[in-house]
Amino acid sequence: MTADDRRTALDRLAAEVVDCRRCDRLVAWREQVAIERRAAFRDETYWGRPVTGFGDPDAAVVVVGLAPAAHGANRTGRVFTGDRSGDVLFASLWRTGFADLPTSTARDDGQQLRDAWITMPVRCAPPGNAPTPAERDACEPFLRRELALLPRVRVVVALGAFGYAAVARLTDVERPRPRFAHGLEVAARFDGRPVTLLCSFHVSQQNTFTGRLTPAMLDDVFRRARTVAGLRPVRREP
Q: Whole-structure pTM over 0.90, yes or no?
């Protein structure tokens, strides 16, 4: 499959994701949030639909989170865009050479990723940021197909235990599966291809506001991802 073919296939997959209405609870919640809106965004039109992956189709590194934030990606329509978790993530991706800009505020802000792709196991904003196992399972085919369309991936950075478990379900990993920990590296195979699962605490405010995850810790994870993926090191200073 050529690069153009992959891009076309990713676009088709994205269209399927956006049209998905499989999970009644998630559909109701994402649309309710889009109607009621947060006061700070009351004049904006919310996306209010499933959120697709974003990035470079030739990515060597895939970043896997959890699900769209109700007033972040569910508002802007782009993964990790428009909230404080995304602020932390994109700033680190910029410092480590994966992102063109240190911020991600809107789908048309000019942000581009280099050698990286960002996605999620669950594509709709869930109540309480807590999808059910059934909702995770309903979305799993989207993630599997997405990874299959990114054949140059060598490293999957899992943000949090949920993302780690979701990716591990799709890959051949050692048994018993190592328990999630920040900085954990696990050798795996996806569709016969070797990949390394590299874990980080999630970029949620619960972790970043308490100091459990610092910018330096996150930068170290992405710099390690570059090394494992065979990419040249990049270090930008804010």
A: yes
